[in-house]
Write a structure and sequence with these properties.
By secondary structure, the chain is of the alpha/beta class. It has three domains: 3-245, Glutamine Phosphoribosylpyrophosphate, subunit 1, domain 1 (4-Layer Sandwich); 254-453, Rossmann fold, CATH 3.40.50.10490; 456-601, 3-Layer(aba) Sandwich (Rossmann fold). It has 19 helices and 26 strands. The strands form five sheets. It has an eight-stranded antiparallel β-sheet, with helices on one face. The chain has a six-stranded antiparallel β-sheet with strand order 5-6-7-8-12-13, covered by helices on one side. It has a five-stranded parallel β-sheet with strand order 18-17-19-20-21, with helices on both faces. A hairpin with a 4-residue loop joins strand 9 (181-184) and strand 10 (189-192). The structure holds 6-O-phosphono-alpha-D-glucopyranose (G6P).
């Protein structure tokens, strides 16, 4: 969480920083700030969005060809003007932006207070700014040495960009646990938490590794790893960005979320590209080439993830157990990492993450690695931390997802998990040749089927209008469709602030049924599958208590359509692929309800896209 940008070059920094911050606003949006390194060093910051910062800065001095910018998701200290970044040290020598958490900041703060330091904010970042300054002034060392010494006393995670007013010809960037990318232009450098602010300036980027420190000047940069036993410089590896600016624009849609929902036919095709061939019935996942033996021989597969990625993992459990016949468990990364889980060397752990940066998922990966398991990643952001810390994996290739509520990343994750399960099943023989070929053909049809569902947007909007004032909603599903119900409920609560629960339909009798009355919309995901008859009974139970039924059904269903208040039809598919279709109306329902309620769909309150704190 929190977005960081920086610039050093010959252009004016302010417009580059502001545009970059807007691209990173999905990472946090409770306050924003910039510092411009000019004759006086001007810092502007305020509570609110980047647009509030622009208003705040109007008419002020924004000169400067070096600068830093930050958009915040508060951890220490409420969102207000003072706690906003950048933070300046007490004597004004250092200006800092930070993404992450400094765990021992309280102890360091007390020591600095005893040495005469006064603090303006409640943040951990200001403690670091003052600690660096204290070492710099007291030790009479240069800025780089002061930063290095200060960081040796810090426990925590950080992506940092630091400017020293006495050394205005360079910026210092350090990464430990929070992402940081350097864009290499011609005579200029860009810094950012991810590549989206950089792509329109240069396609050459360096992904900092943990404990890397870059000193970036107009004439070049030096990189070293603070943990490395070898002293001296490290050779930077320059990667070419495959991202296009178009992919990070709204392209005529009202919101990123709507754009991303509509992108799904294409994003799923991108997930397939070069991997499945319906004509030859082949499926190949290059990223798992060296891990197929571990996967086919695994006694157990453990999936770890957070948020929507966790729901994709739940679908993955059903898929892997059905196609590959390997016992599979799914766990929230935040629980897994703290409960001393039993992990065997022949377990395979699959970490799912859109951003590839979720702190709990990263920590859970480290734990699984320590215990000797093979760890694989299913991630969307290329070059992010999770793919770099796993033994192998599969990129989802859904393209940048900017709306905080995840949509196309979910369907891409489920698509990848389907392919993994199929590949294991084919190798181990638990899927017959015919089943395997049929599934490949079925999978290839999914993008067109999603396009057909998206054409029903007006119908879905009309239903959504009727329930925009609901205060609660219940989502029900069975089997493969139970995780879809959970995902539907999460979508509704996160962007429209309506309380919603996702439940396995049969469990309704053990509690939630008590909530049902004539005001309660119950969204039932009831496409044709093995438990169809059972879910029909569940619908009758709701109707008997005057609940309102909105049912997602298979095209041509004439049983549920007679009982439900509303039905939304989706095309028929293999049961195992139904989540990829039935989730689409649920994404649209939550989108339309949130818009009708006047909510900020792309930036819901209190949330952030990338949760890089525990
Ligand atoms: C945040 C986001 C969710 C996302 C979750 C896990 O809560 O708002 O959309 O599902 O983090 O993120 P990851 O990047 O690991 O998938």
């Amino acid at each position: 969480m929190c977005g960081i940008v920086g610039y050093i070059g010959e252009k004016q920094a302010y417009p580059i920083l502001i545009k970059g911050l807007k691209r990173l606003e999905y990472r946090g949006y409770d306050s924003a700030g910039v510092a411009l390194i000019n004759a006086h060093c001007s810092t502007y910051k305020c509570r609110g969005k980047v647009s509030d910062l622009e208003a705040e800065v109007e008419g002020k001095n924004i000169e400067g060809t070096i600068g830093l910018g930050h958009t915040r998701w508060a951890t220490h200290g409420e969102p207000n003007d003072i706690n906003a970044h950048p933070h300046t040290s007490m004597h004004g020598k250092f200006i800092i932006i930070h993404n992450g958490i400094i765990e021992n900041y309280n102890r360091l703060k007390s020591k600095l207070i005893n040495r005469g330091y006064e603090f303006k904010s409640e943040t951990d970042t200001e403690v670091l700014a003052n600690l660096i300054e204290y070492i710099y002034l007291k030790g009479k060392v240069n800025a780089v040495t002061a930063v290095e010494l200060a960081l040796s006393k810090i426990v925590g995670a950080y992506g940092l960009v630091i400017a020293c007013v006495d050394e205005k010809d360079h910026l210092i960037a350090v990464r430990k646990g929070s992402p940081l990318v350097i864009g290499v232009g011609s005579g200029e450098y860009f810094l950012a938490s991810d590549a989206t602010p950089i792509v329109e300036h240069t396609k050459s980027v360096i992904y900092l590794q943990d404990n890397d420190m870059a000193v970036i000047g107009l004439n070049g940069m030096n990189l070293k790893n603070l943990n490395s036993k070898q002293s001296g410089e490290k050779k930077p590896i320059i990667h070419k960005l495959e991202l296009d600016v178009d992919e990070i624009e709204k392209s005529g849609y009202d919101h990123y979320m709507l754009k991303e929902i509509h992108e799904q036919p294409r994003s799923i095709s991108d997930t397939f590209r070069g991997r499945i061939n319906p004509a030859t019935h082949e499926l190949k996942l290059g990223g798992l080439h060296y891990n197929m033996d571990a996967l086919t021989n695994a006694k157990r597969i453990i999936i770890i993830a957070c948020g929507t990625s966790y729901h994709a993992g739940l679908v993955g459990e059903y898929l892997i157990e059905e196609f590959a016949r390997i016992p599979t468990e799914v766990e929230y990364a935040s629980e897994f990492r703290y409960r001393d889980p039993i992990i065997y060397k022949d377990d395979v752990v699959i970490a799912i993450s859109q951003s590839g940066e979720t702190a709990d998922t990263l920590a859970a990966i480290e734990l699984a690695k320590e215990k000797g398991a093979t760890v694989l990643g299913v991630c969307n952001v290329v070059g992010s931390s999770i793919p770099r810390s796993t033994d192998g994996g599969v990129y989802t290739h859904a393209g940048p997802e900017i709306g905080v509520a995840s949509t196309k990343a979910f369907t891409a994750q489920v698509t990848v998990l389907t392919m993994i399960a199929m590949q294991i099943g084919q190798k181990s023989g638990s899927l017959t040749k015919q089943e395997y070929s049929d599934l490949i053909e079925e999978l290839a049809l999914i993008p067109d089927k999603i396009s057909a569902i998206l054409k029903k947007s007006d119908e879905i909007k009309a239903i959504s209008e009727l329930y925009q004032h609901a205060t609660n909603a219940l989502y029900l599903g069975r089997g493969y469709l139970y995780p879809v119900a959970m995902e539907g409920a999460l979508k509704l609560k996160e962007i429209s602030y309506i309380h919603a629960e996702g439940y396995p339909a049969a469990e309704m009798k053990h509690g939630p049924i008590a909530l049902i009355d004539e005001n309660m919309p119950v969204i039932v995901v009831a496409t044709k599958d093995k438990s169809y008859d059972k879910i029909v009974s569940n619908i009758q139970e709701v109707k008997a208590r005057k609940g309102i039924i909105i049912a997602i059904v298979t095209e041509g269903d004439d049983t549920i359509s007679k009982m439900a208040d509303h039905v939304i039809e989706v095309p028929e598919s293999d049961f195992a692929l139904a989540p990829l279709l039935s989730v689409i109306p649920l994404q649209l329902i939550s989108y339309f309800i949130a818009v009708l309620r006047g909510c900020n769909v792309d930036q819901p309150r209190n949330l952030a896209k990338s949760v890089t704190v525990e």
